[in-house]
Amino acid sequence: MQRPPINMPVMSKRSKRTIIALGSLAVLVVIWFNFVGVYVDYLWFKEVGFTQVFTTQVVSRVALFLIAGIVAGAAVFGSLFIAYKSRPVFVPTDEADPLGPYRTIISTRPKLITIGVSVLVGFICGISAQAQWTVVQLWLNSQPFGQVDAEFGNDVGFYIFTLPMIETVLGWLFVLVAMSFIAVLAVQYLYGGVRTAGPGRKITASASMQLSLLVGAFVLIKAVQYWYDRYSLLFSNRSDVFTGASYTDVNAVLPAKLILLIIAAICAVGFFVGAFLRSVKLPAIALSLLILSGVLIGGAWPLILQSVRVNPNAITLESQFISRNIDATRSAYGIGDDKVEYVPYETSVVANPAVLTNKAADLPNARLLDPNVLSPTFVQLQQLRNFYNFSKLLSVDRYTVDGKSQDYVVAVRELDVSRLDEGQSNWINEHLVYTHGNGFVAAPASDVEAVSAKGNGYPKFQVSDVENQGAIKVDQPRVYYGQLGADYAIVGASAPSADTPVRGREYDTQTDTYTYTGSGGVGLGSLFQRLVFATQYRDTNFLLSSEINDNSKILYQRDPVARVKEAAPFLTTDTKPYPAVIDGRIKWIVDGYTTAANFPYAQNITLSDATQNSQQARGALGQTDQQVSYMRNSVKATVDAYDGTVTLYGVDDTDPILKAWEGVFPGLITPSSAISDDLRAHFRYPQDLFEVQRSLIAKYQVTNPTDFYQTSNFWQVPNDPTADTGVVSPQPPYYLQVKLPGTDREQFELTSALTGFKRDFMGAYISASSDPATYGKITVLKFPTTIQTPGPAQVQQAFRNTDEITRTISQLALSSDVVYGNLLTLPTEQGLLYVEPIYVKGTNSERAFPQLNMVLVWFGSRVGYGATLKAALEKAASSAPVAVPDTVDPGTPGTIDPNATGSAGAGMGTSTSTAVPTPTQPLSADAAQALVQVDGALKALESAKTTGSFAEIGAAQDRLNDAVQNYLEVAGPSVGSAPNSAPATSSGG
Question: What is the pTM of this model?
Fold first, then answer.
């Protein structure tokens, strides 16, 4: 029997009471703060009418917490109890036994310690398990996909809903067995059942039996896991070319899993038999066999097969599996032939821009206002007060005004408390006075003010706010829910009385205040509610301020995307919410995606990588790092900007994942039949989904496995040639009102250019319709491979190589900052048109803002510029064709260097060129003489550049243009038309 430790400190009763009191207080504080967090969430869900979302989550989490906690606690308790009961009666000790004091403590209170350890383990396991509530709920409400995988013939729903649940259960069984093993080992070691030193047997029979049984159970679970590991091969990333089971996976790893399953089952039997025979030799042999077979069969053999057999013959052996990947990827991301139409696009590269200016109907509706650039312009011209602001990136939508439907750049004038100055910044102003924004601001995207009292090149604003009612009518222009507001606002005025009529305190206009009358918000009338929110926001003003009364309400969680995420936690939200006027009210529209990572054979992507573009350098939010292999835009959510009402509309009735979540939250999703015509007219095809799809279409439009493996005929998303200096990132897609070739009217489309793989020439033009009649239809215009049509980077280079443009921009840069707008690609019946707006802004003020200065165009190998699109096209029609480079350095942004002097050094050191097409047959005498004149004009231009005189350079350039035009007229059909086949006469350094 061990003696109690000597000289251990004895605690007084007073000290014990103090520690108990402080501990109880700490526990109460922790409980209170956790209660406040849960209660505030409950109040929010109650406010928006989604209480079932809250209760379902809580019930699911609590149920899993209890189940996992009880099972884990019981397993550990049973292990501790059995190990303690079977401990050795006599423990060999010596004077220096380090375990003696611990044995004494445990022996004096074995029940308390056993129960305490079990409860602690159960609590930790319960906390961990409750986070898996989504896996459990999806399994309980699983839906069939109606399509099977190509290897095992299971419905896809098995991989999406059932397999994750099985893997979760197996994982928890491993944890339970491992914790039980540790518990038994710890007790037996403490009491001498397992020893590392001393004479005689190092482990007792009872300890050997218990540990062997637990290891046998662990190995048996591993055998079951081997069976289900086979299905995980369908998500393999062994191949660098595609996702899914490869030749090696199917012919080496899959058989290996079955062999290892049999070996693991035999080993488990060995452990069980060894436990009852009280022998450690058989379990040791079984464990050695399992480890050795795992290394040889599960590891070495697949590597050998991959290196010796597959790598030298991959183009043949992987063909079948690439086909599976192509079919699955097209289905998983909605880019199959049932969703995407591929149309050949025949374009004339020598069409004259005059064909677009002859008839007004042929002139494209090109967007001249860049929503990524003009936020400062909206701020300075429509801010009204210092505490209002607009989003960094504006939105594009379409409206019908005076019977004309066109694109508008739209924004909401929001409250931004960060703009309050020092005299305005205090708790009352930030949360009780300045509570809401004011108005909806729109401007036609393809039109600007002409020279007038209002200015030149500024947007033609349509404003609907408290004091104005524009053409886009808004009945309630006050904005309490938006992207820029404070974390919370307190609204509501005192009740009226005989002496004091009701009077608001919220700022509304310079002369009026306002009292919120919407349904949003949570009441602050009781002291308890005020205490709750004082705790939540760590602010005693909730308790001390006399401005808060019985009618006060707090509006919180005011960001529209955050509200949708909270209301529908199963959705991945789009990063580009946008405001729209729906039935006279401002509503935020947020796209919601259902995603999965277990779609067999579908290509696995990272959302943040697939949606990266140059907008993020200008302040756009990026997507999460979530890995997905399935994606659907199944939900369109709206958030009312005045009362915060959240409505979730189901727009994909065929999505099994959405159906499963509707089973979890019945009635949460409003059916698509309830969508009003006005709301549907403002649905846009979501940008994040489009970016994912275009990156996949660039590869998966290739259906031949051999071509796919060789990356033959792949496309790619071009880098943004107008990005700021030093920024190299993909060009974002653009919302445009565009009339695609072969269609009879303009439609609101989300569009993007695609170039050839590792090339700059156009490969395709992809667009997704947002019109209600054709919503979601994806059209891919495939450019002919026999004609090399310049891509965005090459056209931007052509702008840089045009002396007149470079000279004009250089002159602008002397007094202003030059801002480059988006380079738009517009396919027309007559040919491909590029349009780029150029803005200028002041250099000496932080409040400087861009205004449209000119428009650049490229059409039919000709470049022009002017104050309007028509003027630019007319200028291009009178100019000579220009050459474009075969390639453009991808590491060099394509903006025109505003610091270049004339054309010398223009385009960041790129030479300027004027195209002289190569004759396809011997020249006539007149044509030969004209070519001599071209050569002379070119030499004169080179000489003029050495003088640095703008006048001489301009005159020489005009002479060269005239000479080239004369040559083209004289040479006639003898001149080839391929824009890149002709040598360019260089006139730069």
Answer: 0.85
